[in-house]
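ok here's Olfactory receptor 56A4-like:
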Amino acid sequence: MILYSNNTRTQVTEFLMICFPEMQDTQHWFSLVLAPLLVLALGANFVLLLAIQREASLHEPMYYFLTILSLLDVILCLTVIPKVLLIFWFNMKPISFAGCFLQMFIMNTFLPMESSTFMVMAYDRYVAICHPLRYPSIITEQFVINAAIFIIFRNLLATLPTPVLAARLNYCAGNVIENCICANISVARLSCEDIRLNKLYQFVSVWCLLGSDLVLILLSYCLILRAVMRLQSGGAATKALSTCGSHLILILFFYTLLLVFIFTNKAGKKVPSEVPILLNVLHHLIPPALNPIVYGVRTQEIKQGIVKLFKYQR
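and the structure:
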């Protein structure tokens, strides 16, 4: 809906999300992939959360970090994917002004929180492998609490201006968002005001937050690799490399998918508009689906906790 004001400009009170502008008649087929991935992501994360909650042996810092990661994954999935499926299945394109900026706030805040969680988990693995004797005194429950506070407030304070700046714009140029989600720039383009500040702030905040996280993660794993190569026991080195290797691949996939989205979005008309839109949606779905599976499969204690959980249900 658009309300007309006294100064002949229009005031937007809701937006319409049309997802893939050039594929309106066929875009519903994407739901055949998105719906199963959503069920997988939610199911795997809830199983992991229940296993950690019920198994006393998993009440340790490393698994608390996995709990934080799973909670972030669930929130991101539920913030984005159900609305996308409603658009595909029932053509429910409208989203309220407040609802759009709430979605934008959650996406812009929780994705960097997930990045920070990966960083803290990489530090946890660094201490466990490089300083095993000091691990119990460094990675304590108080450390987990401090890390959680850091993750929340660091990213909240840094990303809050993004939706605030977008919400303060005067939307008089239309209300059709050519995207499946309320991405900052996709929405800001509908404003009749200058949005260079919005673009600049998002660019700086994203690269500062995720860039610093990625550098520290890579540094941690380089130090881990150096320590593993010095291990006298070949079996211990192989186990450490196998576990950390799968975690690092998962982390790099998270950042690679994000970087591909950013660069394809910057490429403009050189890349079909559907590509960055699809990548944006998948970035809120594929990592949440893979994270609990990889960490669960590669961690013996979690596998045992999941087996006990299903035995308990019977």
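+1. The chain has twelve helices and five strands.
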